[in-house]
Amino acid sequence: MSPGAKVLLIEDDAGIAETLERVLADEGHEVTVKRHGDEGLACASTGAVNVVVTDLRLPGLNGLELTRRLRAAQPRLPVILITAFGTTDTAIEATKFGAYDYLLKPFAIPQLLELVRKAAESNRLMSEPVDLGARGIARDALIGRSEVMQAIYKEIGRVASKPVNVLIRGETGTGKELIARALYHHSDRAAAPFIAVNCAAIPEPLLESELFGHERGAFTGAEARRIGRFEQADHGTLFLDEIGDMTPSTQVKLVRVLQEQCLQRVGGRESVPVDVRVIAATHRDLEAAIGQKQFREDLFYRLSVVVITLPPLRSRREDIPELVRYFLQKHGPALGSAEPSIRPEAVEFLQEQAWPGNVRQLENVVRKIVLSTQGYTISAEHARAALQQAGGANFSPAGPFGDYIEQLIAAARRGEAADVHARVIDVAERELFSRAIREAGGNQAKAARWLGVSRITMKAKLVQLGLHRGRDHESIAP
Length: 478
Ligand SMILES: Nc1ncnc2c1ncn2[C@@H]1O[C@H](COP(=O)(O)OP(=O)(O)OP(=O)(O)O)[C@@H](O)[C@H]1O
Ligand SMILES: [Mg+2]
Hints:
This protein is α/β, with parallel strands linked by helices. It folds into 4 domains: about 5-120, Rossmann fold (3-Layer(aba) Sandwich), CATH 3.40.50.2300; about 130-310, Rossmann fold (3-Layer(aba) Sandwich), CATH 3.40.50; about 315-390, Helicase, Ruva Protein, domain 3 (Orthogonal Bundle); about 420-465, Arc Repressor Mutant, subunit A, CATH 1.10.10.60. It contains 20 helices and 14 strands. It has helices at about 15-25, 35-45, 65-75, 90-95, 110-125, 145-160, 175-185, 205-210, 230, 250-260, 285-290, 295-305, 320-330, 345-350, 360-375, 380-390, 400-415, 420-440, 445-450, 455-465; strands at about 5-10, 30-35, 50-55, 80-85, 100-105, 130, 140, 165-170, 195-200, 235-240, 260-265, 270-275, 275-280, 305-310. The chain has a 5-stranded parallel β-sheet with strand order 2-1-3-4-5, sandwiched between helices. The protein has a 5-stranded parallel β-sheet with strand order 9-10-13-8-14. Strands 6-7 form a two-stranded parallel sheet. It is globular and about 85 Å long.
């Protein structure tokens, strides 16, 4: 999904340079090679570079000095240092004053590619400003002028430059990451780094070291000291995405760092002061997680000095036409139709859908539509087909359940049905909970996780719907 980055490779060994250039180019990156430290610095200073990969030992300016100077001039440009055995300590020190990461020779190519991908993403997050309430333009923008969204823009304006942590809540795909970036860009830390860590994507034992770093020998495999993302984000902003997925033991450490504004690396005793603004995001119900002792209350209060809650797309349908136009403009050219036009019925059709995947799902469907229409005017039929192709059959109010709703509404119109809302919700919930608990073999915790509800909610619903047969692990007949 992410397009290639502009990578500056600084390496004096012609053989290595050639190999690395090729693998990076194969990955879709645009690579410029420089042999000399000074040439590298000059090239990076043009501003047309997203990621620097540099050897530590170079003729002219060495990699360390290069990193130091780049950090001063362009704090948002990630630098990856490649170091030979014996120079590790220097490289580690380098990460302290700004190198994004380092690689020890010999390294596997996929390792390099993964680091470059992450660094490019980090650069993208930092350097592409997010416009608030913009009207269709090509770069990243927060689209939507519904009242709820306008209130959110105002809130961003109010809190962006205050030295407070912010918690962003909202269902999947509602734009939490975009809001985090908007906060960063409008803060007085916008010139300092913005570092994102996805807590759900990093397995538990690694997350602590990723965040706080570790000392040499802290655990098996910790051959050298590592500087964590907290220290790297010093004076800047740390975006802790999917915070609800952080395990309690890491939460304890995080609370301490937020309280004391200093950290200890894993396996270390030294107290390292850090000045970091934390923006956290989650789609989880943290209050429920607190109730189940899965999330620490003290951490919740530390993180949620300011809370921004993003509405689901279905509750701001008036923004859908503008979002559709924005995504058509954003993706049309790359997908082969410069200015796709769309019929009003197609927009209306999209406006009526449930969008459980919110803006991300809408964006995907618009992309599919553009691909399938190839420049022809988009009709409601195109939209329907793309939605279905995107797995939308379950999402759209079509099919038997849709029919049921239609009949009920028709009956209500004739005055033959009452409590339509309660009846539909009851049917939907009964179906959802009974299926989930059956599929989970009666395991309520598992079923709750699948549905994204707390175990308390799960249990309460089973009781309420008459599906509860006593103990937790008993299987439940539908
Ligand atoms: N208001 C908006 N205007 C324009 N694009 C948006 C808006 N909200 C979300 N998007 C786009 O939708 C996609 C999903 O947004 P984002 O990644 O910020 O969601 P998220 O809430 O972090 O989702 P998840 O919980 O799944 O991580 C992105 O491509 C983003 O650019
Ligand atoms: Mg996200």
